[in-house]
């Protein structure tokens, strides 16, 4: 299963990067979100899947699944939520001020 | 010793606060404390029984980089010059700079320079010396550009920076080679390994690189062009940095390494050859200048060339004369710069064509100038120190008979004539300087200000320096055994005993002096008949044009290169970054045999997991192809909720909960914002850029997969997670291990995570609530 999940993480990255390379701000945000999803899955797979119980201590259970990737991912989910929201509002404000959400048009005049 | 080096820069921290009261009391009075204290500390080392002392302070011991200070005769002479002239220059600047100037900046730069320069001459560590060396270049840059509203100041500052830093970097290369050969960073230890260095195959490279550093700093031909432009600095700076101290750092460096290098005849050829060319060219050019400080700048260059040439000779007399002249030059040139500043201050111009006849209006300045210039010219009078070192210079030129190669022998034979030739021009520009300014016809109506004698405070510093000129001239042996003998010993490597006396008898050196004075007077008197020669040499030739051309071309080239990739397009930047990651990581993975994929040690494959995975993959790819806002958001949501399902299956309840909550809020946010955003358009880019995007994204995804698989198949060491499982309850007091890690074991991380969220929230609030300037909302 780890193999399949790693490939899935790769697919998420591929789709994310492709969206990231687009011109529209929306697509860039979607790409960033996909990449963070991919990263979460990637980290989780690193810690081996389905070995032992959920990492909550219980009497009589010796074997738990790896808690460290989960702690990392938990931090990451929250941070990427913050980033996504900021990006979204930034995109909203930028397109409202400038009348476009096309990154190529937001480059500034000297580079046109 | 550490404290004395850093005293000025420590004082500099206080200057911005002190300078608030500059209208009541001039900031310079406080600044003077630093050099004066350093001077008093070190002046007690002067004495016949002086022994070198060492002070060691650790800085980066793992790299052999430490504040090791070594005070021998050579360092002592320079420390005294830096602190002594520093005190006088600060005193002078109190009267020179009006309190309406930006005194805080000026004095902070000046104090930084003092620390840097003290560090250069005291450091025993190659790399500490280099750091201080570059710091002198930086403070010099700041001081030259002090009046930064003037175009010439900025030009001069940049020029000095480019040339001296170029030399400094070459010197660093030389130092690194020295370190590699000897295995030590201590200069004293390196001086003890002369044989190893001389036999090294890199010897000539080291010699060339270090000399490049010295020549650029000490303004030797053809790198001298920065010094005349550096005269845009305030006059106290010119007197201090660009005459007495910083430009002598190159001389110091050559002197420091003389014990190693002088064994090779190329050292003589390069150092004396360049030195004597510098002496002749600069004194020839000085006669052509019309700006008082321009004359003094070229004069400084030529005197530096003379000292450099003497160091190249490497004989006892020459080295003694060189160190003697370092001291003498600082006294008379420092005072002459100050007098040039006084003339500028009192008349409003430094143009020698407008000046004249000032002797009756400014008698004290004129008297001081006469002493200074005649000492500079080497006029044979028993109360002028310049004559003594000049005479020793001539004596040294006649003793060059130790060379074996024909090139060195040829240069040695030519040097006495070249020395006389250069000194004749030295004599001419000295006379031109003093007579042109202080005698002749008065042009009072051409002067911007009505001249009168300067205030006593301004005269005080040059008076002290000229008294030094006279004192050393009258009793030269006063500084001989207690100071100069130690300096010469440090440079030569063995004790040098030399008696300085005025009358040598009718020796060749005396005749050479007479020729200089005689021919010099004649040429000076008939100057207007031969001055036309400057139209042919240098005529239109100019090293400045070479510099300007190089600067211009490199600026154009770098602008072109930068523009070619800094396109301002986000997509391009992402392509560079991601492409670089793919292109660098893949080959390294292949080269280091990092790819290692095996399918053992995996958990079983179940149907529902595969189905969820397939749905996520399809949804992720679908985001690329949907052009409807709502559809895109929903497919994105499928990915997020799918992930949450996977989290549940993979025994991560906390993750699943968080992911569900976050995904829901995100969806709501997306929908809210998307409502206001323009609809998605069909992709309009061409096939080419589309395929580049595809290649990069597939490459990146493949890279991630390969890394993940290889990492999964390679277990280099045991997991550290067991520690958390074991200690979660005993140390953290909680049964939910993930929570204990987050809030207890990695508590600070989580704290900062909260800070990031808070910042994001503030940013969002600002973006939504704050009105734009245009009043769009």
TrEMBL record, chain A:
Mode of membrane association: Multi-pass membrane protein
**Classification via Pfam families:** Oxidored_q2
Q: Which GO terms describe its cellular component?
A: plasma membrane
Localization, UniProt:
Cell membrane
The highest taxon in the source lineage is Bacteria
Membrane-crossing segments per the record: 6-21, 28-47, 67-92
Which InterPro entries does the annotation name?
Answer: CPA3_antiporter_subunitC, NUOK/Mnh_C1-like
PANTHER family from the xrefs? ANTIPORTER SUBUNIT MNHC2-RELATED
NCBIfam families named among the record's database cross-references? PRK08600.1, PRK09094.1
The protein's name in its UniProt record:
Multicomponent Na+:H+ antiporter subunit C
Instruction: Name the species this protein comes from.
Output: Gracilibacillus halotolerans
From TrEMBL, chain B:
* Membrane-related topology note: Multi-pass membrane protein
Q: Does the keyword Transport apply?
A: yes
Major subcellular location class? membrane
**Quick one: a GO cellular component term?**
plasma membrane
Q: Which Pfam families match?
A: MbhD, MbhE, Proton_antipo_M, Proton_antipo_N
The molecular function terms in GO held by this entry are: antiporter activity
Query: NADH:quinone oxidoreductase/Mrp antiporter transmembrane domain: from which residue to which, for each copy?
Result: 123-413
The name this protein goes by in its record: Multicomponent Na+:H+ antiporter subunit A
């Amino acid at each position: 299963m780890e193999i399949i999940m790693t490939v899935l993480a790769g697919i998420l990255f591929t789709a994310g990067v492709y969206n990231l390379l687009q011109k529209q701000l929306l697509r860039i945000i979607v790409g960033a979100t996909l990449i963070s999803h991919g990263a979460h899955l990637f980290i989780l797979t690193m810690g081996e899947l389905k070995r032992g119980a959920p990492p909550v201590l219980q009497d009589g259970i010796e074997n738990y699944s790896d808690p460290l990737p989960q702690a990392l991912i938990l931090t990451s989910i929250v941070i990427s939520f913050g980033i996504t929201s900021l990006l979204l509002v930034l995109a909203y404000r930028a397109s409202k001020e400038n009348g476009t959400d096309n990154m190529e048009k937001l480059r500034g005049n000297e580079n046109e | 010793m550490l404290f004395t080096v850093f005293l000025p820069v420590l004082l500099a921290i206080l200057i911005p606060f002190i300078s608030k009261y500059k209208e009541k009391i001039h900031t310079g009075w406080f600044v003077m404390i630093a050099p004066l204290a350093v001077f008093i500390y070190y002046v007690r080392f002067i004495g016949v029984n002086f022994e070198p002392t060492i002070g060691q302070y650790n800085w980066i011991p793992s790299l052999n980089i430490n504040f090791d200070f070594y005070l021998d005769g050579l360092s002592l002479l320079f420390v005294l010059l830096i602190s002594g002239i520093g005190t006088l220059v600060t005193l002078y600047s109190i009267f020179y700079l009006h309190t309406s100037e930006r005194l805080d900046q000026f004095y902070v730069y000046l104090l930084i320079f003092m620390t840097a320069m003290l560090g250069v001459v005291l450091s025993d560590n190659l790399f500490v010396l280099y750091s201080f060396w570059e710091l002198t270049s930086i403070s010099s840059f700041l001081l030259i550009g002090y009046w930064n509203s003037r175009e010439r100041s900025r030009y001069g500052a940049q020029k000095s920076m480019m040339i001296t830093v170029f030399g400094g970097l070459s010197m660093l290369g030389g130092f690194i080679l020295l370190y590699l050969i000897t295995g030590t960073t201590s200069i004293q230890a390196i001086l003890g390994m002369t044989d190893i260095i001389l036999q090294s195959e890199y010897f000539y490279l080291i010699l060339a690189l270090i000399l490049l550093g010295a020549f650029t700093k000490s303004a030797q031909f053809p790198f001298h062009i920065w010094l005349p432009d550096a005269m845009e600095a305030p006059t106290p700076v010119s007197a201090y940095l660009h005459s007495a101290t910083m430009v002598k750092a190159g001389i110091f460096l050559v002197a420091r390494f003389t014990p190693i290098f002088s064994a090779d005849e190329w050292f003589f050829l390069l150092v004396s050859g360049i030195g004597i060319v510098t002496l002749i060219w600069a004194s020839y050019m000085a006669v052509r200048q019309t700006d008082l400080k321009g004359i003094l700048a070229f004069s400084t260059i030529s005197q530096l060339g003379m000292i450099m040439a003497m160091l190249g000779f490497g004989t006892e007399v020459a080295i003694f004369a060189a160190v003697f002249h370092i001291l003498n030059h600082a006294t008379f040139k420092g005072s002459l710069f100050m007098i040039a500043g006084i003339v500028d201050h009192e008349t409003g111009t430094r143009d020698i064509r407008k000046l004249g006849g000032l002797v009756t209006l400014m008698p004290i300045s004129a008297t001081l100038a006469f002493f200074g210039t005649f000492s500079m010219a080497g006029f044979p009078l028993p109360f002028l120190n310049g004559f003594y070192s000049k005479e020793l210079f001539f004596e040294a030129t006649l003793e060059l008979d130790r060379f074996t190669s024909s090139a060195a022998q040829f240069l040695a034979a030519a040097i006495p004539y070249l020395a006389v030739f250069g000194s004749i021009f030295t004599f001419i520009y000295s006379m031109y300087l003093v007579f042109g300014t202080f005698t002749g016809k008065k042009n009072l109506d051409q002067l911007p200000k009505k001249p009168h004698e300067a205030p006593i405070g301004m005269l005080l510093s040059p008076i002290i320096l000229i008294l030094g000129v006279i004192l050393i001239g009258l009793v030269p042996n006063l500084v001989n055994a207690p100071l100069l003998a130690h300096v010469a010993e440090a440079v030569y490597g063995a004790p040098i005993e030399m008696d300085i006396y005025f009358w040598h008898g009718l020796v060749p050196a005396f005749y050479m002096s007479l020729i200089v004075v005689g021919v010099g007077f004649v040429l000076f008197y008939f100057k207007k008949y031969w001055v036309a020669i400057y139209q042919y040499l240098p005529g239109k030739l100019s090293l400045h044009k070479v510099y300007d051309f190089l600067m211009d071309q490199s600026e154009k080239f770098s602008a072109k290169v930068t523009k070619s990739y800094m396109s301002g397009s986000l997509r391009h930047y992402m392509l560079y970054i991601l492409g670089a990651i793919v292109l660098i990581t893949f080959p390294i993975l292949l080269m280091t045999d990092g790819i290692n994929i095996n399918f053992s040690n995996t958990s079983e494959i179940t149907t529902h997991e595969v189905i969820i995975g397939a749905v996520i993959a399809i949804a992720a790819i679908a985001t690329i192809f949907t052009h409807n806002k709502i559809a895109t958001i929903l497919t994105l949501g499928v990915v997020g909720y799918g992930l949450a399902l996977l989290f549940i299956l993979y025994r991560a309840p906390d993750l699943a909960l968080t992911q569900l909550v976050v995904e829901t809020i995100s969806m709501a946010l997306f929908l809210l914002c998307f409502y206001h955003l323009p609809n998605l358009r069909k992709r309009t880019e061409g096939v080419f850029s589309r395929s580049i995007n595809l290649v990069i994204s597939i490459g990146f995804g493949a890279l991630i997969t390969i890394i993940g698989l290889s990492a999964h198949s390679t277990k280099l060491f045991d997991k550290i997670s067991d520690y958390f499982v074991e200690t979660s309850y005993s140390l953290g007091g909680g049964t939910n291990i993930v929570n204990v890690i987050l809030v207890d074991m990695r508590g600070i991380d989580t704290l900062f995570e909260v800070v990031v969220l808070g910042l994001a929230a503030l940013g969002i609030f600002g973006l939504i609530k704050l009105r734009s300037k245009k009043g769009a909302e």
